[in-house]
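Per your request, structure below.
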């Protein structure tokens, strides 16, 4: 395997783990060993052993068992407020359940395992029962403030290019290595995520890439999974409750032989990694790192850069424009080097990636303003999107069309207003159709961060806001559409992004032909005067 020289003066290497299928032999889970923090309530037992979990949906158990089948090998999961305890106890006793997993003591003679969080406990038990699928293949977690989805899909592309069957789970969709889907549910965590990993193992996958959110990490929703590689994108953002960051929580789930791929420009993240004593591979657009890049040109939606690793430098041309996208590509290149892929092949893989829906997605037009769609939902991501759009806009102006979402706090909106005023040339504030009633109040939250309020145009109808911006923008201008789609689940997001892109194309085609700067004759630049 490739040996990489790290900026932390240590040697890092990584090998792909061989995959295997569950043997089919029934696995017995001893709850006392899996959950050392648990307490058991029964005079006759000090542990509970089971081969399966039974969960209730309302008043009915989620099981395919027939009415005459006993639950002597099963632990019943009780979630407070989600099912009727009397019905659950009666069902468990009638079928002779081995015990009950719960957060509070129930008036029941059956053995009970009391845990602080039943979701976390159920996921850890599930991991044992299905044979720890995260240990049967290479498990990669991608986290950060920006670029998680892009980096996850790029890493999956690198693995596929290496002829490694790969499963992935992102905001834009998921794959079990065979079938790609855009599910109607949100990101999977806990037991659901483990079952998805088990399905990927059954499909013959050797690797799995999982997009991780800070909220899920800080709430322990991935505590049943161990990661071989963690990739941190953007920068580490501390929470408002003085608790651990998402990166701190993720590092606790990194295997002892695992590797962290991190931006050398993220000082908070670098400090956390050093404190945790993990092995690192770094990337950077600005300073020294294991893998570096320098942008040499951004024009016509194409970014040209020089990528450097060790003593090799290769030019990379990609349609994924902007510094934020380039950082995600560098993280993916660093991962590819870990699995012994040649640098030139990794650069070719990055070149083949044209665009991702809603991730600095470019919609060009010959006779009207070009548009860029980005679903950035927090100030950090919005900053990255605006800066990338401004750097690649050319001679024209940057128009920012920002859609207020229900998830935005007043503080976030004020910060976004300040960012748009600072980096944009023209600003249009709008909202989603279901948020029109609160638009006036919420738009004032945006204006709280603005100095020149009169420069902002407020249009409650998002279609009309987009129509006005494209009609008023010049042919050399760029219209950046921010937060233009809901991020509840992959299917909804993809459908809304497709509808938004079609609407933009329709508005562009309606515009009369506008001459770009210079027309048919080159324009002379005045460099001096007598």
């Amino acid at each position: 395997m490739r040996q990489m020289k790290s900026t932390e003066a240590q040697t890092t290497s990584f090998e792909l783990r061989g995959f295997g299928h569950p043997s089919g032999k029934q696995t017995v889970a001893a709850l006392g060993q899996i959950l050392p923090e648990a307490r058991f309530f029964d005079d006759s037992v000090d542990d509970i052993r089971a081969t399966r979990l039974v969960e209730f949906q309302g008043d009915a158990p989620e099981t395919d068992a027939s009415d005459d089948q006993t639950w002597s090998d099963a632990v019943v999961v009780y979630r407070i407020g989600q099912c009727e305890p009397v019905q659950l106890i009666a069902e468990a006793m009638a079928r002779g359940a081995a015990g009950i997993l719960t957060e509070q003591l129930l008036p029941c003679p059956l053995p009970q395992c009391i845990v602080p969080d039943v979701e976390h406990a159920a996921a850890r038990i599930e991991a044992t029962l299905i044979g720890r699928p995260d240990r049967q293949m290479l498990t990669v977690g991608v986290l950060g403030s920006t670029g998680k989805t892009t980096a996850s899909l790029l890493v999956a592309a690198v693995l596929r290019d290496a002829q490694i069957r790969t499963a992935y789970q992102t905001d834009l969709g998921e794959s079990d290595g065979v079938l790609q889907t855009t599910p109607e549910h949100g990101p999977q965590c806990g037991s659901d995520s483990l079952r998805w990993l088990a399905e990927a193992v059954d499909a013959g996958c050797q690797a799995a890439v999982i997009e991780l959110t800070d909220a899920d990490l800080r709430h322990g929703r991935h505590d049943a999974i161990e990661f071989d590689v963690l990739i941190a994108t953007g920068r580490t953002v501390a929470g408002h409750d003085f608790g651990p960051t998402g990166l701190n929580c993720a590092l606790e789930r990194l295997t002892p032989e695992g590797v962290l791929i991190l931006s050398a420009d993220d000082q908070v993240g670098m400090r956390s990694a050093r404190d945790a004593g993990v092995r690192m591979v770094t990337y950077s657009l600005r300073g020294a790192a294991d893998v570096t890049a320098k942008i040499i040109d951004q024009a016509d939606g194409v970014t040209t850069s020089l990528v450097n690793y060790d003593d090799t430098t290769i030019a990379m041309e990609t349609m994924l424009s902007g510094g934020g996208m380039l950082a995600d590509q560098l993280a993916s290149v660093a991962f590819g080097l870990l699995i012994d892929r040649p640098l030139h092949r990794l650069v070719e893989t990055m070149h083949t990636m044209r665009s991702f829906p809603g991730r600095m997605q470019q919609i060009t037009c010959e006779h009207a303003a070009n548009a860029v769609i980005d679903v950035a939902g927090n100030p950090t991501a919005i900053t990255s999107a605006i800066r990338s759009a401004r750097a690649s806009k050319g001679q024209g102006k940057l128009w920012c069309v920002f859609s207020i979402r229900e998830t935005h706090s007043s503080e976030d909106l004020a910060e976004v207003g300040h960012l748009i005023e600072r980096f944009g040339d023209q600003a249009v504030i709008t909202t989603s159709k279901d948020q029109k009633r609160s638009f006036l109040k919420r738009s004032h939250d945006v204006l709280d961060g603005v100095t020149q309020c009169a420069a902002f145009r407020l249009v409650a109808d998002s279609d009309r806001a987009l129509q006005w911006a494209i009609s008023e923008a010049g042919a050399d201008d760029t219209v950046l559409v921010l937060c233009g789609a809901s991020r509840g689940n992959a299917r909804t997001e993809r459908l809304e992004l497709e509808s938004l892109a079609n609407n933009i194309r329709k508005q562009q085609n309606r515009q009369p032909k506008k001459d770009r700067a210079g027309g048919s004759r080159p324009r002379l630049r005045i460099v001096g005067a007598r």
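Residues 4-10+132-352 form a domain with the UDP-N-acetylmuramoyl-L-alanine:D-glutamate ligase fold (CATH 3.40.1190.10).

Regards,
D.
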